[in-house]
Structure formats: C-alpha cells, structure tokens
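ping. complex inputs:
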Amino acid sequence: MKALTNRSKVAVDKELTLMERLYFPAVLKGMMITLRHVFKKSATVKYPEVEKEFAPVYRGHHVLKRDEQGRENCTACGLCAVACPAEAITMTAAERKKGEEKLYREEKYAKVYEINMLRCIFCGLCEEACPKEAIFLTDEIVNASYDRKDFVYGKDKLVEKMDNRIDITKRQKKY
Amino acid sequence: MEFALLFKILIVVGVFVLTLLVALYSTWAERKVSAIMQDRIGPNRAGPFGLLQPLADGVKMFMKEEIIPGQANRALFILGPCLAMLTAGMTSAIIPWGDVITINPESVPFSEYFTFGESKTYIVQAADINIGILYAFGVVSVGVYGIMIGGWASNNKYSLLGAIRASSQMISYELAMGLSMIAVIMMTGSLSVREIVEQQDGFNWNIWYQPLGFIIFLICAFAETNRAPFDLPECETELIGGYHTEYSSMKLGFFLFAEYFNMFISCAIIAAVYFGGYNFPFMHDLGLSDNAIAIIGIFVFLGKVIFGILFFMWIRWTLPRFRYDQLMKLGWQILIPLAIVNLLFTGLGIIVFK
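pong. complex structure:
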C-alpha cells in the first residue's frame, strides 16, 4: 500500500533493540518535541476581544433584500423553497393592492416568508435559485435560543431594515 | 519570650504559608504549562495572566455540594483526605530552606521583650532532626493510607481499584527510592538533611557522584506523587478518577491539592539531596557576608525547587501513561536491580577513594 505522506511509519511487531528498550532516548526526544512547542505561537483567537474575520463566501443568516427605493424584491415565486434541500423555506404569496407600490417591487409579494433555521443547512442554493436577487446569505450568525420555535425566522427578522442596509455586493456573482 | 522560639514560630508559619502558596500556584502553573506545550493560552480570565484562577478554583470547591455516598463508611471517608493532606504537609518540617543566619541581640527591634540564648545563630529550618531522611520516608509511606482509606471507604469498585493500584505502586517504588537514597547516605554518612546539604558546598553537588541514583530517585518520585507517566491510581480514562471517584467539594480538592503538595516536597527533597540545596557555585568568592549568602541561598533553593516542579510538569505533558504490568516490571525488574548495582559501585568507590 502506498503511503499518503512520507511521515507515516509502518507498524512492525519486531523485537526492540537495546537502544529502544532503554526508553531514555525516546523520552528525551519527546521532551524536545514538547519544548519546541513552548516557543511556538499559540493558535488561540481571544474571542470576545478579538474577532476572526469571516471568509467573503461565508454563509450565515439569510436576508431578504430591498431595492434602492426600499421595495421588497421577493415576488414569492417559490423557487427558493423548491431548491432548498432541507425544506426549510415556506411562504404564502399575496397580490399587491393599490397604494402598496412603495412597499413591493412587483404585483405579487410574499405575505409570509419563513425559514426554519434548525432545518437550514446554509448551502446557499436558495440564493442561487432566486431570479429576483431577493435572498442572500450574510456573514451574520444565527443567535442561540432556549426555545425551538424561536428558530423559525419570519419576515420581521429576514427583511432588511431601511436604516440598516446589508451589503451583499461581495456575494453577487460577477460574470 | 525567648527569641529562638519566636524565630522558630516565624519559620514554621512561613514554611507553611510558602508550601500552601506554591502548591496553590502549582495548579495554575500546571494548566499554564500544559497550555503552552499544546500551543494554547491557558487560564487568562481571572486576573492578569489568570493569576487569580487558583482562588476562583478554591471558592468553587468550597461552594460545591458535599456528597457522602449512602453506602460509604462515613468516618473513613472523611479520614482519607485528612490523612492525605496531613502527611503531605508534615514532610516540609525537615527541609533545610537556608543556611544559618546570625542575629545580634542589639539589632532586633523591641529586643527588651525577648530573652536571648548564648548562640547567636539560627537555622532556617523547622526541625533539624538527625534522622531527617528516615522521617521523610516514614511520613511518605503513611501518605499511602490516605489514598487507600479513601478508596476503600467509598464502596465503589473504581475507587477500590484505584486505591489498590496506588498502594501497590507506592510500596513497590518506595524500595527503589530507598535503595537509591542509601547510596547518598553511604557517601555522606549522615541521615540529617541539613548535613547532607552542608557537604555539597559550592558546586560539589551529589548529582555529579550519583547520576544513576538520581535518575532512579527521580523516576520513583514521579511514581510516589502519582503523576504521569505513573498516574495509574487516578487515570481518568480507565477508572474515572480512581480513588477519588466518589469525592466531591473540598474533600476532592484536598486530594488534588495533596498531590501538588507532595510534588513540591519531593522537588524540595531532590533539590536538597542531589542539587546542593541552598548551595550555589562561587558562593564564597562573591565577597558577601554570611547572612547575605544565607538569604541568597534561600532564593537559590526555591529557584531549584520551582525548576524541579516545572520539570515534573514537562514530563507529565510529554509522556503517555504506563500500562500496569509495565509499571510493575519497571519497578521490580529494572529499578531495584539497578539501585542495588548503584549501591555496590558506590561502596566500591568509597573503599577505593577514601
């Protein structure tokens, strides 16, 4: 069998030589290894004080985008729900009434839009399926909670706030 | 009041506080050393560098619920940690922390309240008994009872297994330990620790004459303090804590604390017997007064002990645990014959060179 790395050693059940049975050279070797680690930099990130930056492709908490005039992009077509392998997304569509043109971009919109964050596997397929650039995954982390029903996120948590727009340009594909 | 008595009380209290403090901070140092060797940071939340961590641990231990199992033997269950702590603390009496200090009656503040004897010299040691080494070995052997009684009284198979392991291990390794120590005693011709230290003046340390004896003694010290690679009595992976499985709250704390106590004492004995105690190289060429050298010597001794403790930790975080039959084989078939050979060669050396 070919070894994957040149560091691996094949275990053989052979008699130990006197040098090996003395055990002391091995002990000293081991102590040198631990001593070498004393001078190595620790790999710990001191979390609450120092936060590690996420990769630009990190997939966290979803956001339902609005366009420049503050209208919701989502038209409740249901493609995200179809694409979702974990079946985490549900929605109810509704027709836009007169006078709501400022709220929704097109004639149809999602009255209810829910993502179950316990089911979601953060694969990002909903984002790829969306034809209207309405749903994106952000670099925000889903908060912990004591109650399972708190993890079903409705529109109140998903739609982006006007005073707190979320920048998703780094997630938009450039062709 | 007699001044010699006051000095003695000061030494005893000082030694007691020092041992407690060193043992307390050994728990912190152990975690820090292990962290550094594993490229981690270790405790750093309580105080700067986590220096208040031992206090936080102590508070936690005291606050926890104290459980005595229903089937346990109550009296023995309580006696176990008491004995472990008591014997761990008793050994520090014979350790010579420093050379003699000369104190003039005139230089003592409030000297009118004290009576002074004829001698103006005072030793920095709780008790200079002429059988110091024997006393230490005796007390250490009693220390096994704390673990044994604790494990037996718990009425739990894991505790009992741990206690059996501990007692057989400590009895086995005491033999090799004693034999390697006899070689030193043959060389110095005295059982008093102070005299052994005094004979290692300057850089004339015993380790240069007894390298093999030192290694045997060191290995046995690891086994006696139940530390890795010989931590079989409490191996978490097999015996879920061994003899202290059923213990909780400060009783558990005392067992754990006794281990660090023992480690400090065995490092002190190693430093005194093999590394010249409070002696340091070129101590007489510095042109300092005897008192100054004695005070430097105290710190030199403590430095040696702290280095010893760090070495114990270094070994612990390097080596994996022995299997039990390997442990017994090492003790009976290798260390004891080696110690006897060492004894023979020491005797030959004494005949040839004296």
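The two ends of chain A are 45 Å apart (CA to CA).
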